[in-house]
Amino acid sequence: MLSKTIVVQNQVGLHARPATFFIQKSNEFKSSIWIEKEDRKVNAKSLLGVLSLGITKGTEIKIVTDGVDEEEAINALEALIESNFAN
Questions:
Q1: Considering the domain boundaries, does residue 87 fall inside one?
Q2: 15 is annotated as an active-site residue
């Protein structure tokens, strides 16, 4: 199991289009992937779950991966966030 804490810097946060890109990228991996914000934890492969966190610009989140491709998954998701979701 791996985890990384990241601050979301894009203008709209993890809402609508960026959330869709994040979920699509998460679904490319076999590992279980979660996003944690404060005391809430949701499945990163669920649009409703991700949107329910209300992640806005400047929000600190933790990405947690667990499985056979966990390292590849966490690195790809971190790169996606840091690129401001330039798919």
A1: no
A2: yes
Q: Active-site residue among 8, 13, 15, 22? A: 15
CATH of the domain at 45: 3.30.1340.10
pTM check: above 0.90:
yes
25 class by beta-carbon count within 10 Å (0-12 exposed, 13-18 middle, 19+ buried): buried
Q: Which domain holds residue 25?
A: 2-82
Per-residue pLDDT of the chain in tens (87 residues, 90 and over written 9): 999 999 999 888 888 899 999 999 999 999 999 999 999 999 999 999 999 999 999 999 999 999 999 999 999 999 999 998 876
Domain tally, the chain = 1
Using alpha carbons only, give the angle 45, 46, 48 rounded to the nearest 5 degrees. Answer: 155
